[in-house]
Amino acid sequence: MSERIHFDDQIARNKRKSVFLMVIIFGVIIALGYVISYAFSPIYFSMIMIIAVIFSIGYVLISYYNSDKIALASVGAKEAKRSEYKQYYDAVEGLTIASGTPMPKLYVMNSEQINAFASGRNPKNSVICVTIGALKKLDKNELEGVLAHELSHISNFDIRFMTLTAVMVGMISIISQIFLRSFQFKNNDNKDNKLGGIFVLVGIVLAILAPIAVYFVQMAISRKREFTADATAVKITRYPVGLIRALKKIKEENKPEKKVNKAVAPLFFSDPFVNLTSTHPPIQKRIEVLERM
Description:
By secondary structure, this protein is an alpha+beta fold. It contains 10 helices and 4 strands.
């Protein structure tokens, strides 16, 4: 018989793993900086860092402060009216009271697939959007499980956490591209020795592999946040069966959502696409973990 898991232990464990993975990304930045400083010069690396920081933070901050608007517009979501979606409102209001989370704005997306997503830079500026399919096909407990999962993303500040991750990953991509493209302007008199040549070679390998490696680390962080949100949903509802049944229904459907842009796929309760670089853990794995709570 599998060992039982307490939701608080699961939450703490996945948060630690998320932080550890963030440290790995930071370590890659340090490694790139060290190698580039030896291959060229510390001043050169400082210039790259300044450019990378400005571009990555500028781009991500725009997305961060408009994440809800971008996500809602990309799927054609419409604001849910209480008179038309009373069960939806009642479920979210009950969960916000139980979790101590401010009431988010509610939206619906015209899709028959069972899915939902949450967005917003903080709990006071947040939205939840569910598909018409979720409202039709899920019973009360199943819908509450899905909505509690989305509220968990809001209360755990996952948008902020993943934004920080995106900034760091973006910095690595920019640093790598600038380093690789700079060889056509490199002064051969600078560090023209055997040791410098070794660092240049190592730098090239790192610049090629680092963006790929940190992308997979970013996906791993996203999966850990999904496990954390599942565990937090159980903490809120005290009823893992509802969430388990909802996941089983999604697994049975197994239909890719054509209306969803891949850029906003990480926000969804269940990844709309099935591929090796999925931002979500396998549904069966999520079910197995929940069944042990």
